[in-house]
Amino acid sequence: MTGPLDTTIAIPPPEPPPPPRRPRVAAPAVEPAWNLPAGLADLAVSGGALLAEADAQVECVVEGLLEPTDVCLFSGEEKTALKTWQLLELAVARILGGQWLGRQVKCGKPGRVLFISTETSRRNIGRRLKAICRGLGVDPRRVAEHLVVVDQPITILPREFLDRARRKSTVANAVASIKLHDKERREALDRNVEAIADGEAKRLGRNLDALEAILDSPKGTWSLVCIDTVRQTLEGDENSSADASRYTQGCRELGRALACPVVASHHTSKGGTAGDARSSRGSVELTAGPDALCTVGTSGEYPTVHSRLRNLESPGPVGYRLAVDPNGGAKLEILPPCGKANAVADDDVLAVLRTHADTGLSVTKIRTLVSAAKGGKPGAKANPKVIEGKLTALEAKGLISRCHIQQRNGETFDGWRIGTGGGVVEAKPIQRTLAEAMEDPDDV
């Protein structure tokens, strides 16, 4: 007998969930091969070559101050800053190895120093050179054979500026030749087109054939170029941004073409001070372009040079004085800095105002008294921007206040006084006190 049928339905076990999918990691993209465009190949650097440039060892020409191919602007007041003496001492140190501004200078032999002297004759350069060598106790012939002196101005321009003038002249004369119907005149113009173009380029400055000869010198020919002064080697207006920019570009091209530093002396503006890089005369382009700015302050007993560097840490100020011994030897002695009218602290301004607590002082008088307190010459003034900045900061702290100084005729002018009183003060006691401070009985 057959048993009952099993009508149960077997339910299969649930399938296990699929394993989680791993995120697919995209294969690193393969950068397509790339090369510098042909027009950039001679001008640009990239990739490993750029990093190699960064890792390359650079040995300073002047320790902590000048690297190879640097452009340096050495500015100071005429006569008193001794700029030509400083450039000559640098030239001697570069030839022999020695010290400049208290820093070690690497010997540049067998390269020579090119000294472009536009204001001092070769005879006087030679006399000063012999005096410096006597001061060092060396035979001047050891230096003279590695020093090349040019006592005529050489205009400093970028080569491209000259080439552009030649191309422009060539094109203009080619067009003019086409328009000429006279065969002989046309042939004469065609024969002389290069000479005419060269003449057009040379009209842009003085002794430009000498400039191009210098630029074409093989690397290693020169170890240093000294230019004394900027004004005599700059074509155009030193206050013109375009002319000044073209000059600094020419100096940079000179340094890179010759693989040596270029140091140019310049004059400071009448209102400038040593700590202000803008104190050099002329357009800001003259101070924006160089790698090193060495500005000489002469407000103290002796000159002091202040340096600002683009690529290195700026060193502290250095004082110096020309010492002449009985034998005619000359040497620039390194001394502590002095007359730093630019290095003004809040306390310097407060001290002046406290001394005149019962009066007010104009900004000009404050500048004069601060400079005198810092060891400046009689009549010298501290940097106006520095003083105005200190006054604004002290006012914000509530230590000083603005006031009105009333003159004898009833007119008033702006001034400052200690404390928060402000108000109006009489001019007469201020002037008398200042006259006593400056020992000038006529200043009443």
Task: Give the SSE map.
Elements: H1 47-55, E1 71-76, H2 83-96, E2 98-100, E3 103-105, E4 112-117, H3 122-136, H4 140-144, E5 147-150, H5 159-179, H6 183-191, H7 193-202, H8 208-215, E6 222-228, H9 230-233, H10 241-258, E7 262-267, H11 285-288, E8 292-297, E9 304-309, E10 318-324, E11 330-335, H12 346-355, H13 363-373, H14 384-396, E12 400-406, E13 412-418, E14 424-426, H15 427-437
Parallel strand pairs: 1-7, 1-8, 4-5, 4-6, 6-7, 12-14
Antiparallel strand pairs: 2-3, 8-9, 9-10, 10-11, 12-13
Helix pairs in contact: 2-3, 5-6, 5-7, 12-13
Brief digest:
The protein is an alpha/beta fold and 444 residues long. 36% of the residues lie in helices and 17% in strands. The protein is built from 15 helices and 14 strands.
Description of the molecule:
The protein is of the alpha/beta class. It is 36% helix and 17% strand. The protein has 15 helices and 14 strands. The protein has a nine-stranded mixed β-sheet, with helices on both faces. Strand 9 and strand 10 (318-324) form a beta hairpin. The longest helix is centred in the middle third of the chain and has 21 residues, at 159-179.
- The SS-based structural class is alpha/beta
Q: How much of the residues is beta strand, in percent? A: 15-25%
* Helix and strand sequence: HEHEEEHHEHHHHEHHEHEEEEHHHEEEH
Mean pLDDT, to the nearest integer, reads 86
Q: Major sheet: order of its strands?
A: 5-4-6-7-1-8-9-10-11
Separation, N- and C-terminal Cα atoms: 149 Å
